[in-house]
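Researcher: We're teaching a course module on how sequence relates to structure. For the next exercise, students receive a sequence and then see the predicted structure as tokens, so they can try to spot secondary structure elements on their own. Here is the exercise chain.
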Amino acid sequence: MLRSREAPQSRIERACTEDGIELALRRYPRAGGDPVVLMHGLAQNCNAWDLPLPGFSFARYLAERGFDVWCANLRSHGRDDFASGNAGRWDWTVDHFAAYDVPAIVRRVIDETGKKPFWVGHSMGGMVAIMYLQGACFCGTHLAGDLDLSRERNERGIRGLVALSSPARLQMESGISAAYGLASLLGDRNLVTRVLKRPGLARRVLRRIPRVGLSRLGRFFDSEGRIPESNGGTVRLALRWSFQEATRFVTCRQIWHGPNMDRRVFHAALRHTVDDICGKVLLQFVDWVENRTFRAWPEHTPRGSSPFVYCDHFDRITCPVLLGGGTHDRIACLRTIESDAYRKVQSRDKTFLPIADAGHADVLYGVRTSSSLYPMLAAWMANRGG
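Model: And here is the predicted structure for the students to work with:
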């Protein structure tokens, strides 16, 4: 695919789900180019793939090389004009993303371009595509994994899936539970730590909190990740300390690999990409952590039946796939991705990609991401496009 001489310009696209939610997408159109959907992970938005810093926008990188790029926001994610709706509710799970949002986005891209899109997802952004390809759909209020729908989506939905740092199940490589890893971010004496270490307590707390507000974390930084002079000296010192401590403490290495992070990029990511989370989405993650699994939310299952278990149905995936993650990722560990996902998918065309010296979140923002990961992913898609 030839590199375009024109600077990519974006525009807003909309997709409507079957349950009436309007999703917002930032599109970098390229006539005739292979469409690519870029999907964010938990507590993020489409800016995760499109930071306004030189060298940290995979969206612009692809557009400059002729791809038709769609940066998507799941329901109630996104900023300003690119914010997706939620119909005034905060009442959904990850299953809703897979059963409603992903199909709406794929349909919109196909209707507009006449081509099946590649899907590139980070963490939960890859998980929802995996669930979609396994046939996730709602029959009334119950979540099912429809085999015929799975076959149709693999053949006619997504041209190829790239899932980076997407857990095959919520299980940590070290044998320490993922709940402990997430909890340890805030220290053993913190109340949130105790909640996360006790899934029963976490469920009781989150059921009372429909929305977990995180988007205000970015208000201390400007658009390029700098700390404005308007912030007082104490605030500036505290922000610098927060980055140093975040990269130094072993507990925070559950989220990123400190040596792979640049302070300004880290601050820009906080400024532009962090979004609020629906409490039920976190409840579903708590269920995965507690049971070391990857399954439908139990309340979407008929009484007396067992939830559909996504990590037991990777063999339904037959479209081309690239599965990978950071060698220092302690949330989506490579050994689990390889054994529980890569070896089980039935795709004739599949690739396993270890990303050296990267953790979980910094797969997107690492110091060598643009020079090493971007070209590999673009080449993988270019070789399967047309």
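Model: If you want an answer key for the exercise: Residues 178-273 form one domain. The chain has two domains: 11-173+303-382, 178-273.
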